[in-house]
Amino acid sequence: MTQLAGWGNFPVKETTLLAPRSEHQLHDLLASNPSVIARGNGRAYGDSAIGAPTTVHMRHFNKMLAFDANTGLLEAESGVLLGDIIAAFLPRGWFPLVVPGTKFVTLGGAIAADVHGKNHHRDGSFRNCVVWIDMLGADGVVRRCSPEQNLEMFDWTAGGMGLTGIILRAAIRLRRVPSAWIRQQTLPAVDLGDAMQTLERSVDASYSVAWIDCLARGAQLGRSVVMLGEHATPEELPPQQAAQPLTARRVSGRPLPRPFPSFLLNRYSVRAFNAAYYWAGQRRAGFQIADCDSYFFPLDALLGWNRIYGRKGFMQFQCVLPPDQASNGLRALLEETSSAGQGSFLAVLKRLGPGAGPFSFPMEGYTLALDFPVSRRSLALMERLDRITLAHGGRFYLAKDSRMSADVLRQSDSRVEAFKEMRQAGGLSGRFRSAQSQRLSL
Amino acid sequence: MTKLPVLILGARSDIGLAVAHAFAAEGYPVQLAARNADGLSAAKNDLELRYGQTVTLHKFDALALEDHAKFIDSLPQLPGIAVCAVGFMGEQSTSEADPIVATEVLRSNFEGPASILAHLANRFEHRGSGVLVGISSVAGERGRATNYIYGSAKAGFTAFLSGLRNRLAGAGVHVVTVLPGFVATRMTEGMDLPAKLTAQPQEVASAIVRATRKRRNIIYVRPIWQLVMAVIRNIPEPVFKKLNL
Predict the structure, then answer these.
(1) Could you tell me which of A94, A431, A130 has the C-alpha nearest to residue A292?
(2) What is the C-alpha to C-alpha distance for residues B173 and B130, in angstroms, rounded to an integer?
(3) Closest-CA residue of chain A to B43
(4) What's the mean per-residue pLDDT of chain A?
């Protein structure tokens, strides 16, 4: 037995951790273990990828299989990291259609959580770039699932949190990009209303996201730095970069606002950080050229930033609220957070586009992500945030969840019962089981 | 300028494969050599897709000493760098009980690697350039009851590499001795290893790439191993023989 946790280091659970090296070994493993869950790179925050009782680490399924340079179609095993895909194909002018806030997620994990990125309002979630998935089912049979064949399984699997089977391989479509650089526009927003209006006005931007100072109160509640982005064309780059537009080397002399080095990060500096980030954003208002890593994955530069909250770990809270309730709901969530004084180092607000799929998280509206150190106070606060979300018609992101109750999940999302019924009907309930699926009774 | 290829001996091992990735990512063509070279076709495909480098597969048996010269002749090009990741730990208890098995461990970790590197050394010396990398082990620093068959072979290999480096120092050929501590590989799967002392194969690989670039002589992958081994080497024998290590 091994002690295993997700990215938030909470909760820590006992599990049998196995890492098969071949499909053959995986089949044997499935035959001899009644309940398993697949695990990618362990970047889900909570207990999504901790098996109850057996966890199947997919790290040895990490080979790229084929690439078509005409269409951008990439076939790869599920343990390949999005970061590997970017490293291999960005220099050739290709980029994933959708990337989450870290590139250290596996292809299988990105599909299972149906991750979204800063372009969700235009391009939707990760499922939109998935052409097919090879799934190892409860019966030990591998099936290709796509919009053309086994559509239902394809649909449930994208966003199904690994509870529909084990993703072995997938094909995704990459998009052509003109350079390895992002032309970033930074727009400070003085309060929540300003931030939301700025995001609404920016629906034509390829990428948009806002960092919220979640500790600002009163008239400054919700003050933010909105960051828009476009893939830069070679003509928009300084001569040094324009010569080799697909080679991302950091622009010298123009450092972007970056988080503190990890040794300075603790709960006492969070308030200062949030304020500093806001002021830095204000000073930098306007256009900059940023490399893809700084724009899409600012926190990846702080390897192990999940440890800043100490051994007890931390929890993420991420919900999405529908457009008509978003303003009131976000205000209530931020008021609750700032008055509790429970600092969040990472607070992100994002406008989402229409949802897709029977169990995926995103839906039209606003998503807010906050993180909190593990403590009784935080847990109590998060329960209050749950209730505010429910009162405003919102729902929750399972890839971030580590502590929600089954009851809250059901109140938030009428699709849960259908998901559970599908699992029961397909003989999946006992077969694919995580600590999270048990807690949430999925 | 195109780079000379890197030859990986024992390319099916976790460390060998990680080394192949690390060099291919640096723009080197790669020659993968293993007993079962056919089993490497997926790895070849993967490496080519990721790094756009030429990858070739070569059948190589470390224990077939008489074929070693022929093997080198069969390579499409004499490599610029050769990394020997051949090794076989076996079960100490089996090796103790059956000296024939022990001999296989000795041959796989010393005789075979030394033979192929000796051939390569002569070719590199003749050319006047090249880097040889031997992956030995901290187990060779002092024999311990739990691991001395493997350890003694690695001790021999370490001494061989040291002598080779000495011999070739004036000939433009560099020799790197790698002494990884614990590494999370197939060899150590299921062992209960302390996390702080255990490197990932990728760490070993990037340490090797760095060492070839900087012409380092002896590297421990995680610096803490230098300390650990200094302690182990300096325990007086009357005490050491009673320890349970």
Answers:
(1) A94
(2) 5
(3) A63
(4) 92
Tally of structural domains, chain B: 1
Give the Cα separation of A308 and A371 in Å (integer): 11
pTM for this predicted structure: 0.93
The CATH number assigned to the domain holding B232 equals 3.40.50.720
Element (H or E) spanning A68, and its range? Answer: strand A64-68
Q: Are strands B182-183 and B198-199 parallel, antiparallel or unpaired?
A: parallel
Span A325-335, pLDDT tens digits: 999 999 999 99
Domain range for B20 is 6-240
Mean pLDDT of A68-87: 97
Map residue B191 onto helix, strand or coil. coil
State the best of B50, B191, B200 to mutate against chain A, taking most chain A CBs within 10 Å: B50
Q: List all residues of chain A from 68 to 87 with a beta carbon under 8 Å from chain B.
A: 84, 87
What DSSP string describes B27-60? T--EEEEETTGGGGHHHHHHHHHHH---EEEEE-
Low-confidence stretches of chain B (pLDDT < 50) are: none
Instruction: Measure the CA–CA gap between A440 and A405, rounded to whole angstroms.
Output: 6
Domain membership of residue B1 (yes or no) is no
Residue B172 located in a structural domain: yes
The catalytic residue positions of B are: 150
Q: Using the beta-carbon criterion (under 8 Å), do A87 and B25 form an inter-chain contact?
A: yes
Contact A63 B43 (CB under 8 A): yes
**Which residue's structure tokens are 């499935």?**
A30
Residue B50 and residue A66: Cβ atoms within 8 Å?
A: no
